[in-house]
From TrEMBL:
GO terms for biological process: lipid A biosynthetic process. This is Metallophosphoesterase. CDD domains: MPP_YkuE_C. It comes from the Bacteria. Keywords: Hydrolase, Metal-binding. It comes from Methylobacterium aquaticum. One of its GO terms (cellular component) is membrane. The lineage of its organism: Bacteria, Pseudomonadati, Pseudomonadota, Alphaproteobacteria, Hyphomicrobiales. One of its GO terms (molecular function) is metal ion binding. It holds the Pfam family Metallophos. Residues 63-252 form the Calcineurin-like phosphoesterase domain.
């Protein structure tokens, strides 16, 4: 079984820097900042969310959830050392629960070295939280895995590495978390665009392996629930009984100017882009940590997201 990422052509460090330099020259100062500074300017973004009245939530329960997504492990952008720093920063936040919302593997061509799962998964295993560390997979975790694509199903290299390092990967299933106020269920959806264009299931160009009804049915009626879904598009179908959905995938567009992102990988590009969205229930879309497609970030720095769930929202 080949390591995830071997389908990508590797670039020399010189070629990567030349490409970054060309982007920089296109906008001089702005381009240099977007390729050489902001992709590494990590921030912590916090949200305080009180679940909607239709979502069952224990009175007085407040959970701090740390969200990491879209790591895209590759050099020079996301080295093993940088991932270790992200883990240390996350542990320092003392969250009750840590969730990893997919796309662990590289997602672009401008890389000097793919960081293999044998390196990044053991680092992620050092994340700690009283209620545990859980994960779902993202589209790139599937797309770069030739064997999983050939089978049209798992296991994937990324998922196996996480599991072997003690991180539970949720695939259309849910688990109860033992809080002081009773069980809160954490549900994880399999990826919505997992299979590459060679597959033609159900008329979709990139069919998913997700099953929202099955995932929701795993949670007892009336029980409080949090949902992990790599792509946020599924939120249009999420019922009000779900207290919170956590997603990534969009990277906030990677370029976001005055609250507007010109390119968003979504069927709802103006609806599910970045940040906190409230419709029938609540959704938080993280801008992620790594880079996809192009080595650039502008107006949406890499972030660790912290959600205080059960807290009164800021006025």
């Amino acid at each position: 079984m080949r390591e995830a990422g071997q389908g990508y052509r590797l670039f020399t460090r010189r070629r990567v820097l030349q490409g970054a330099g060309a982007l920089a020259l296109s906008g001089v100062g702005t381009g240099a900042y977007a390729t050489g500074i902001e992709p590494f300017r990590q921030v912590v973004t916090s949200y305080a969310i009180k679940p909607n009245p239709a979502a069952p939530w224990p009175a007085g329960l407040r959970l701090r959830i740390a969200v990491l997504t879209d790591i895209h492990a590759c050099e020079p952008w996301m080295s093993a050392a940088r991932i270790a720093g992200i883990v240390a920063a996350t542990n320092a936040l003392q969250a009750d629960l840590v969730v990893l919302v997919g796309d662990f593997v590289e997602g672009q061509r401008y890389v000097t070295r793919v960081v293999p799962a044998t390196e990044w998964a053991p680092i992620l295993s050092t994340l700690t939280a009283p209620l545990g560390v859980y994960a779902v997979l993202g589209n790139h975790d599937w797309w770069t895995d030739a064997e999983a694509q050939r089978r049209g199903k798992g296991p994937t290299i990324a998922g196996t590495a996480l599991t072997q390092n003690g991180i539970r990967v949720l695939s259309n299933e849910a688990v109860p978390l033992a809080t002081r106020a009773g069980p809160v269920w954490l549900a994880g959806l399999e990826d919505q665009i997992a299979l590459t264009p060679g597959w033609r299931r159900y008329g979709h160009r990139r069919p998913g392996l997700h099953d929202l009804p099955k995932t929701l049915a795993a949670v007892p009626d009336g029980a409080p629930m949090i949902l992990l879904a790599h792509e946020p598009d599924i939120f249009a179908q999420v019922p009000a009984r779900v207290a919170l959905t956590l997603s990534g995938h969009t990277h906030g567009g990677q370029v976001r100017l005055f609250g507007w992102s010109p390119v968003v990988p979504s069927r709802y590009p103006g609806r599910y882009v970045y940040g906190h969205v409230r419709e029938a229930s609540d959704l938080v879309i993280s801008g992620g940590l790594g880079l996809s497609i192009a080595p650039i970030r502008l107006g949406v720095p890499p972030e660790i997201v912290v959600v205080e769930l059960g807290a009164e929202a800021a006025a």
